Amino acid sequence: MTDAPASTRWCLSRHGGAVCTRPIGHAGLHNRVGTSLMWSDRTADPAQCPVSGDPASPAPELAGGFPHGRALCPTCLAFVRLTDDGRLWNHDSFRGARTDAEQLERADWFNAHGWAGETLPDR
Ligand SMILES: [Zn+2]
Ligand SMILES: [Zn+2]
Fold this sequence. Notes:
The protein is mostly loops. Helix content is about 10%, strand content about 10%. It is built from one helix and six strands, in the order ββββββα. It starts with 13 loop residues before the first strand and ends in a 10-residue tail after the last helix.
């Protein structure tokens, strides 16, 4: 395991549920690789994930405890804290791990449990 997960190198702007798979910070229109769908920042979805507040269950934990009772958001693939009544906290759509440690833990988790929800293309 030397490669970081591909998702963390993507722009991840969203439009109608599609995710931009161009590199972070790219110029020009957003584009989902393999489709003709393109969009601009003006028409991109809001930063807040649309399923914030939906019921969810904690994701399985790795031996080290990750993701510590958080749920995997089925829409944006962020690990999100749950409210006391089992709903996803309001959160921004996932745009890449904030730390190297989190990135490694996410990679381990997806290796162990696979992708839920959206299937991300290989690159
Ligand atoms: Zn983009
Ligand atoms: Zn989400």
